[in-house]
C-alpha cells in the first residue's frame, strides 16, 4: 500500500529522482522519460473521461489504473532481482494486453472498414482519444528506445502498442460508430 504523508521531499532539487528500487537517476534519464510520458498519458485519459460515459468511461478508468501499474513496472529496472525484493515489483502482464485486444476486436466489429485515413476530431471525446493515441505512441517509442539500453518488461511495451490502437478504435466509436469520422482528402489544399 502506498502512503504519501508529505508531497514534497526536496530530494529532487538537484535534478535527480528515485526509481522504485531506490536508485537515484537524473530526471531526464530515459527510464524517467518513458514512465513520465505514461503518467502524462494518464492525465489525458482523465480529460477524455470528462466526455465519456457508460462502458467507455469504465474502460477508460481501467486504462487509467493500468497506467499506474505501467509506471510502477517501468520505475523498477531490476527485473532480474524482482524475486529477491522485499516487496515484489508490480509488472504488466500479457493478460492486460489480451484484454485490450478483445476490447479492440469488439469495438471494431461494430465499425465499417476504413477506406481512408481519418483526421483527428469529430466529437469532443473522439478528439481527446486521438490525443491519448498519440501520447501512447510517444510513450511506446520511449519505452522501445529504453529497451535498447536497459531491461524492460516486454508486456509493458506490448501494452502501450495495443493501447494506442485501442484509443484509435474508441475514437471512431465516439464519432457515432465511425459515421462522423472526418476523412482525409489527399491533396485537398493544393493550389
The CATH topology comes to Hypothetical Protein Ta1238, Chain: A
CATH superfamily: Cobalamin adenosyltransferase-like
User: Can you tell me the number of structural domains?
Assistant: 1
Q: What is the CA-CA span between the terminal residues? A: 61 Å
Physical arrangement of strands within the biggest beta sheet: 1-2
Architecture (CATH level 2) name: Up-down Bundle
Q: How big is the Rg?
A: 19 Å
Overall structural class, as computed from helix and strand content, comes to: mainly alpha
Major beta sheet summary: 2 strands, antiparallel
Q: Can you give the helix content as a percent range?
A: 40-55%
- Strand proportion: 5-15%
What is the approximate shape?
elongated
Topology, pairings included?
Elements: E1 16-18, E2 24-26, H1 30-49, H2 54-74, H3 94-109, E3 118-119, H4 124-147, H5 154-174, E4 182-183
Antiparallel strand pairs: 1-2, 3-4
Quick take:
The protein is mainly alpha-helical. The chain has helices spanning 30-49, 54-74, 94-109, 124-147, 154-174; strands spanning 16-18, 24-26, 118-119, 182-183. The longest helix is centred in the last third of the chain and has 24 residues, at 124-147.
